[in-house]
Amino acid sequence: MPDRKSSSHAGRGLTAFLLSAPALLGLLLFVLLPFLLAAALSLTNLRLGSPLPLEWMGLEQYRRILHDPTFRHALLNNLLFVVTVVPVQTVLALALAVLLNQRLGAIAWFRVLFFMPVVFPLSLVAVIWVLIFAPGPDGPMNALLELISFGAWTPRDFLHDEQLALSAIMLTSIWQGTGFQMVVILAGLQAISAELNEAATIDGAGCWQRFWFVTLPQLRNTLIFVVLVTTILAFRLFDQVQIMTQGGPHDATTTVMFEAVQTAFSRQQIGRGAAMTVVMFLVVLLLSLLQRRIARQQREVS
Amino acid sequence: MATVEYLHIAKTYPNGTRALEDLNLSVEDGEMMVLVGPSGCGKSTALRLLAGLDPSSGGELRIDGRRVNECAPQHRNIAMVFQNYALYPHMTVRRNLEFPLRMMKLPGPERSRRIEETSRMLGISDLLERRPRQLSGGQRQRVAMGRALVRKPRVFLMDEPLSNLDMKLRTRIRSEIAGLQKRLGITTIYVTHDQVEAMTLGDRIAVLKDGRLQQCGPPQELYDQPANTFVGAFLGNPGMNIFHAWAGSGTAALQLAGGSWQIPLGPLLRRKPKLAQYVGHPLLAGLRPEAFSPWQTPAAAVLIESVESLGHERLVHFVPPGATPGAKSETLVARLPGPQAEQPGQHIELGFDTGQLHLFTHEGDAIV
């Protein structure tokens, strides 16, 4: 009875639609709609509290921001941040996870300690690191560097130093973000069967060879996931910049997200800010597609 | 090729589990030694200690007469086949076989030659470019054996290598393993819980229970002369029937199963002189299921509980008349030839060959 079949099929489709409607509505209202609005606004010159009439600008806004040295600086900073923080953080998290995967007495406490920064609010972490980076010989970071260099270190004002400010933010972010990656990698490590390592041991592999030939290949998919997530988070870098440096000194620490927020809400150039977020979206999208492609290729291989 | 010795080996795990106590065992060059016992008897521990995966808590391990306790596993030149094969999932079969050779830092052409040779021997030449997940259980098993054999180890360890295969495949690979081991002459220690594997594969069998060696010897010797009731009941399917016996000092007969069967003491004492010490004490008697037959004396009328027919033979579960009804330890099994002829609830006359009677002390040790 084709009629009944199709009607029941339609009925099931309707039920599915009704059941998912609340979630879909949320997605539509809070993700898709704002994005479409941003994309549309980026083609105009909308400014808040401006007496000038709204004008259609087409891609002119994009041409302008891409030629804006501050925005280019922001993009470059983001790129620098990604190519530094992602590898350093991943390697560090991997090392920590391997260490914390050992069977030691108080291992649970160490795991908690290393995961704690993840639980702290980013803004709080940033405030604490502002204190750590305090200028003058009494700032904890200066004091530490002086101690371990036997007094050879001259105190610097990290957050107002063009050469050091971005590194200081990177350090903060790595400290804060490593714990999350570590936990994900630790879960990946624990999924590797102990027998594989034992087999490799008996096959004559030392501990580095086991790590290189067994552990790392087995962690491949976990690592791809971790790198992807960290990259996206790195492009969204905002809180630390907002609290620690305000993008300064001389745009040394500004980022795309920070520029977008500044442009849209401080300078009230909504259209221009929207264009910046669309650029960021495209960059992140491109990176995600790239990484997904790599991941898929490797999944086919393994 | 090598000899292996366990000298007073003990193993206590950090959580207090005593896995092995005072294990003394020597495996000769080229021998296939099967460690068998129920789960938790310490047989896998014995293997892991020799491989160096776990440190021993006491005693000395020797390979070729040299102490290896302190030697790292990767330097012992031992190969092992794991129960779940532990093939490297991200490597092709070729890379799996090549891995131990790379760790030995053999040159490329030599590696290829060995892989070629081993894969031909095991019939896996066509599988070299596949990955473990694309293989069937039997193929994985062969690859695991190949990875262990390719480096020509001094000692070959196998930890329940057939337990993940179906019955038919198990029988086939079992005979392949036996043939291969004989041909290559590699000293092999094979761990299993399956007494059939132990009986068919071992040059010698070591039976373990609760971390202690019960008996070690050629399969037939263990079957015919078990050192205690555990070995008797463990080997054979079904195992040896164990039941109470009593050699009264007043009578000249051994009373079996509460007097169901009575055997003259004279001939028994001639065969087992030590029995004299136990006259007047409670004893245990053991009879293999195949020792029973309906035509032999002494005979007793027994109550049949159930019959399992296997076509060419039948397993008759019965209760001897003198036994307390319902006491489980007193249910005995007889293996009788031919198809089913009895019904549960029926009484039949059953006797046995007194020459096949085993006697044990009350504690279970054999009386010879």
Question: What's the arrangement of secondary structure elements?
Answer:
The complex is a heterodimer of chains A (302) and B (368).
Chain A: H1 2-41, H2 60-66, H3 69-100, H4 107-119, H5 122-132, H6 140-148, H7 165-190, H8 194-202, H9 207-235, H10 239-244, H11 256-266, H12 270-301
Chain B: E1 4-12, E2 18-27, E3 32-36, H1 43-51, E4 58-63, E5 66-67, E6 78-81, H2 93-103, H3 108-122, H4 137-149, E7 155-159, H5 167-184, E8 187-192, H6 195-201, E9 204-209, E10 212-217, H7 219-224, H8 229-234, E11 241-247, E12 253-256, E13 261-264, H9 265-271, E14 282-287, E15 292-293, E16 299-309, E17 313-319, E18 332-337, E19 347-352, E20 358-360
Parallel strand pairs in B: 3-8, 3-9, 6-7, 7-8
Antiparallel strand pairs in B: 1-2, 1-4, 4-5, 9-10, 11-12, 11-14, 12-13, 14-20, 15-19, 16-17, 16-19, 17-18
Helix pairs in contact in B: 2-4, 3-4
**Number of DSSP-assigned strands of chain A:** 0
So what's the CATH class of chain A? Mainly Alpha
* Biggest pleated-sheet summary of chain A: none
Give the number of helices of chain A.
Answer: 12
How many separate domains of chain A? 1
Query: Which strand-content bin applies to the residues of chain B?
Result: 25-35%
- Shape summary of chain A: globular
Whole-number average pLDDT of chain B? 88
Instruction: Name the quaternary structure.
Output: heterodimer
Count of individual domains of chain B: 2
CATH superfamily of chain A: MetI-like
CATH first level of the largest domain in chain B:
Alpha Beta
Number of helices of chain B: 9
Structure summary, number of beta strands of chain B: 20
Would you give the CATH topology of chain A?
MetI-like fold
Largest interface: A-B, 20 and 24 residues
Helix content of chain B: 25-40%
Q: How is the largest sheet of chain B built, in terms of strand order?
A: 6-7-8-3-9-10
Largest sheet of chain B: 6 strands, mixed
